[in-house]
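User: Sequence recovery, please. Input:
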């Protein structure tokens, strides 16, 4: 006798619904497995709010060099050097929107409703925003006046082998990041280096040095600076992370514990290493050390995910559309606390 399943019983199929899985759906909207930028926006982590047409911040480029050792009856020396400059970041403007037709609202109610269509439409628009923001952050240095600044704007890569403060002015911005030239002010440059192989003697050694070299601490108690010390997260593409995970299995006590597995996550000196889908498109296989004590997001006051509620569309009286707007940009207050290593 042939095997009979429920789909083969026509009266059952015509008279019975499948389980509808109400109010749930599967997310297949993007190839990105984890988002890092929009969650920081939603959590208001390291966010600065300002007015005007951009955000300015002060940078102390040097100390006064007035301190000295002296003998008794020494003649006083007085000098008042200029040590302060200003950096500035312009606002960029981003929006997303969603729409619904009134007939859809009526149809999508009561027992016929499997999911809330309006919530799905809004969720789709916010996912679109997350993708735009994430792709832009890990993408190339912007060459227009529309796109917010990317990680490559603040932390340019360099082909110089040894770890050093080699970060140049970002591509397309000859005046420097935040209009401060790292040519004029070398301490405004980020740290860079290269690696030839993912080994303890090569990559991990360079990671150790970069980790040490970027750890700046303000010498005077009650610091007025934006932050001090490390608050790192490390980012790279999956193939680089996978190779580092393979190294963990070969590690012994003589090599120390720079690289380790903790609760299923690979960490370097206790700092999580995060895989980034977008970095798979960078042939240099960069590894970014982002110090979130000094990296953040600046918003124009009152324009933080500003929502415009559903409003009728002109010429389509049964259609309503809603918007979410941001006026914002990424901002780095101290580039020398940031670093990147790239394949040689």
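Assistant: Recovered sequence (344 residues):
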């Amino acid at each position: 006798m042939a095997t009979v399943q429920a789909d083969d019983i026509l009266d059952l199929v015509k008279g019975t619904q499948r389980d509808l899985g109400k109010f749930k759906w599967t997310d297949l909207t993007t190839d990105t497995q984890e988002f890092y930028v929009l969650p920081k926006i939603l959590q208001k982590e390291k966010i600065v709010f300002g007015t005007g047409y951009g955000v300015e911040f002060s940078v102390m480029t040097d100390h006064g060099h007035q301190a000295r050792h002296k003998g008794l009856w020494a003649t006083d020396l007085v000098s008042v050097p200029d040590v302060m400059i200003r950096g500035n970041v312009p606002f960029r403007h981003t929006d997303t929107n969603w729409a619904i037709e009134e007939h859809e609202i009526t149809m999508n109610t009561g027992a016929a409703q499997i999911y809330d269509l309006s919530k799905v439409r809004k969720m789709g628009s916010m996912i679109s925003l997350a993708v735009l923001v994430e792709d832009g952050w890990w993408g190339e240095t912007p060459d227009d006046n529309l796109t917010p600044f990317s990680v490559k704007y603040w932390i340019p890569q360099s082909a110089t082998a040894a770890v050093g403060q080699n970060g140049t002015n970002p591509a397309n911005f000859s005046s420097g990041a935040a209009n401060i030239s790292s040519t004029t002010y070398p301490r405004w440059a980020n740290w860079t280096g290269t690696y030839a192989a993912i080994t303890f003697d090569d990559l991990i050694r360079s990671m150790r040095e970069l980790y040490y070299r970027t750890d700046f601490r303000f010498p005077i108690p009650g610091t007025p600076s934006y932050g001090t010390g490390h608050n790192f997260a490390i980012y790279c593409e999956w193939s680089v992370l996978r190779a580092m995970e393979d190294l963990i299995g070969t590690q012994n006590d003589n090599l120390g514990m720079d690289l380790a597995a903790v609760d299923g996550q690979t960490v370097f000196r206790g700092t999580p290493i995060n895989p980034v889908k977008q970095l798979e498109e960078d042939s240099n296989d960069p590894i970014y050390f982002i110090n979130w004590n000094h990296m953040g997001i600046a918003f124009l006051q009152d324009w933080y995910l500003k929502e415009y509620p559903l409003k009728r569309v002109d010429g389509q009286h049964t259609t309503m559309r809603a918007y979410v707007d941001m006026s914002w940009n990424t901002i780095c207050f101290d580039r020398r606390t940031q670093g990147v290593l790239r394949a040689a």
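The first strand starts at residue 47 and ends at 50.
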